[in-house]
Amino acid sequence: MRSADGAGRKYARPVAMAQAGTIESVYREQRLFPPPPQFAERARIGSREHYEAMYRRSVEDPEGFWREQASELFWFEPPARVLSWDPPVARWFDGGRTNLAYNCLDRHVTGPSGGHKAALVFEGEPGDVRTLTYRQLLAETSRLANALEALGVRAGDRVGIYMGMIPEAIVAMLACARIGAVHTVIFGGFAAEAVRDRLLDAGARLVITQDAAWRRGRAVPLKAQVDRALQAVPSVERVLVVRRAGVDCAMQPGRDVAWDEMVATMPARHTAPALEAEHPLFILYTSGTTGKPKGVLHTTGGYMVGTWLTARTVFDLRDDDLYWCTADVGWITGHSYVVYGPLAAGATVLVYEGAPDYPAPDRFWSLVERHGVSIFYTAPTAIRAFMRWGEEHPRRHDLSSLRLLGSVGEPINPEAWMWYRRVIGGDRCPIVDTWWQTETGSILIAPLPGATATKPGSCTLPLFGVRPRVLREDGTEAGPDEGGYLVIDGPWPSMARTLWGDPERFRQQYFSRFPGLYFTGDGARRDADGYFWVVGRIDDVVNVSGHRIGTAEIESAIVSHPAVAEAAVVDRPDPLKGQALVAFVTLRAGQTPSPQLREAIAAHVAEQIGKFARPDVVRFADALPKTRSGKIMRRLLRELAAGSEPRGDVTTLEDVSVLAALRQDEE
Ligand code: PRX
Question: Which of 61, 155, 201, 522 could form a disulfide with 180 if both were Cys (CB 3.0 to 4.6 A apart)?
Answer without folding.
Answer: 155
